[in-house]
């Protein structure tokens, strides 16, 4: 096993809105797991890297966009656990702080146009097909092993919560949480907030990953603010206010939209009073570096 096992803390957040609606709101701070192997990206990588170690692979090969939290997490985790790292980056060659950090951690980058990027298996086989040491990791860390890591979030909870909220990109984190909730036989509703447009498809995606009944899954697919990595002035203003009132930093791509959704649902009385709510902070704060001009 990899020797890095950090249980993220849970803290209660007190805001006038929560008192008014008579709910208690807690946050699991997966953003505090590691500054660069952040949040759910560590959860998703943990068992994947174990598998790679067991198979005696020494090179992690993965995929992502130019601001990908997953690329940075893989670069840093690779350095930490003794792997070389290589990434296919979507789109034309550019320079930005996240890619620079990836390189400082030793990751080798290859930029590929959007057409070629679509077929990741082909890219891997073209370049590394004969390399016994290379290990394929899908975009965003997507995969079965990732689910196990995410389900462990539930194992770490000491208290019971009526509602758990998470942001949703590929749905792997939500699927892992649902798996954990089922495994422990909890009466908890999971609320997944897609951060991209047309997020209704994620219900099917989550079902496919867990193969569980989804009675206790609620998808809130109207909080994407125009699409993936898109923002609105209202979202930015919300992030500023929340961060100033709590000292907890959010970014606009995932966690900002998540908290915006929770507050909106509370204001609309869609979450009953006298319940306990847990919000998962999935990290990814380096994403802010690409969006500072919005603030
Ligand atoms: C990648 C990411 C997500 C999305 O996780 P999925 O498992 O793909 O749904 C959520 N939050 C942050 C901060 C992320 O970096």
Number of helices: 11
> Which cofactor or ligand species appear?
pyridoxal-5'-phosphate
Low-confidence stretches: none
Q: What would you say the CATH architecture of the largest domain is?
A: 3-Layer(aba) Sandwich
Q: What topology, given as strand order, has the largest sheet?
A: 1-2-10-7-8-9
Quote the average pLDDT.
95
β-sheet strand percentage: 15-25%
Count of β-strands: 10
The CATH class label of the largest domain is Alpha Beta
Kindly give the count of domains: 2
Based on CA atoms alone, the radius of gyration comes out at 19 Å
Termini distance? 42 Å
What are the secondary-structure elements, in order, as H or E?
A: EHEHEHEHEHHEHEHEHEHHE
CATH topology of the largest domain: Rossmann fold
Helix content: 25-40%
Outline type = globular
- Given the helix and strand composition, which structural class is it? alpha/beta
Largest sheet: 6 strands, mixed
Q: Can you describe what's shown?
A:
Belongs to the ACC deaminase/D-cysteine desulfhydrase family. Residues 17-283 form the Tryptophan synthase beta chain-like PALP domain. The modification N6-(pyridoxal phosphate)lysine is found at residue 41. The protein is α/β, with parallel strands linked by helices. It folds into two domains: 10-36 and 149-294, Rossmann fold (3-Layer(aba) Sandwich); 40-141, Rossmann fold (3-Layer(aba) Sandwich), CATH 3.40.50. It has helices spanning 16-20, 40-54, 69-81, 97-104, 114-117, 120-128, 144-155, 172-183, 201-210, 233-246, 255-267, and strands at residues 10-13, 24-29, 59-64, 84-90, 108-112, 134-136, 163-168, 189-194, 217-219, 276-281. A six-stranded mixed beta sheet has the order 1-2-10-7-8-9, with helices on both faces. A four-stranded parallel beta sheet has the order 5-4-3-6, sandwiched between helices. β3, α3 and β4 (84-90) form a beta-alpha-beta unit. α2 (40-54) packs across α7 (144-155), α3 runs parallel beside α4 (97-104) and α7 (144-155) packs across α8 (172-183). The model has no long low-confidence stretch (mean pLDDT 95). The site of pyridoxal-5'-phosphate (PLP) has 18 residues, from α2, β7 and α8.
